[in-house]
Specification:
Elements lengths: L10 H29 L2 E3 L4 E3 L3 H8 L1 H35 L3 H9 L6 H11 L6 H8 L14 H26 L3 H9 L4 H29 L3 H6 L13 H11 L3 H30 L1
Antiparallel strand pairs: 1-2
Helix pairs in contact: 2-12, 3-7, 3-9, 3-11, 7-9, 9-12, 11-12
Membrane topology: Multi-pass membrane protein
Keywords: Cell membrane, Membrane, Transmembrane, Transmembrane helix, Transport
InterPro entries: ABC_transporter_permease (IPR051393), MetI-like (IPR000515), MetI-like_sf (IPR035906)
Amino acid sequence: MKKKNYNPENQPKAWFFLLPSLLVIVLFSIYPLFRSLFMSFQKGTLINQEYAGLQNYQMVLKDPVFFKAIRNTAIYAFSVVPIALILSLGIAWVIFEKVKFKSFFETIFFMPYVTSTIAIGIVFRYFFNGDYGIINYILGIFGIPAVNWLDSIQMSMPTLIIFGVWTSLAFNIIILLSGLRNIDEEHYKIARMFGATDGEIFRRITFPQLVPTITFLLTVNLIGSFKVYTQVYALFGGKAGIANSATTAVYYIYDKFHVANRPGIAMAATVILFLLILVVTFLQNKLMKRVGR
């Protein structure tokens, strides 16, 4: 088959077909980013704003509530992402190796991903209810005292982490199953011919081949975890837990923008969160490249 050479005359046509997508990206991604940066140096309401310099950043960095939100966000991210990924990897491996009707189970695991987080949060509120929740009922069967999952300062973050792990499983499992399918079956056949155990096959063949997929999931999940908001809103009924014990960075931004009507402070917190996510993602990618070697 003869390879086609690049034709400069086709470039205008290519830009024409890319134009709708580029307009959407500029309008809903690039413009809000620069608009947020501009507003972070402004004070006042949305209607009446004036230049404030670095005042908003100084206020955010002196606010103990912001550091509490960042701490809760970090606890959530560095708990949910590894736990969910390990569980997803185990479940995907079992489905891929041991289960016959793979398509059926893939559909079951994917259903929560396409379901509204708010709807799932309402269901989990019933599960975690201290008086009649199914979680405490199951604990009672084993003689374990009931836990105040939703209305306790100490339990707000553990409850949110459990909910976050569950909501992360569906996407992870589907992506990992796709990665497992891309591994050449000949590797497994040769390994079994030489008497390799399932554990050795997983460590020496499956896991190394899944490193790019795991890297992708780590990046996506870390970014998503640092932007956690919907889970908090859904699980605690529009609040950030009792006494704001489960407040996160994005919830802090929402509170400053919509409740306190301080858009400049909210946008300053947004820029700081953006830079934090950028640094964490960069370090995570560096680490995974070393692991891949």
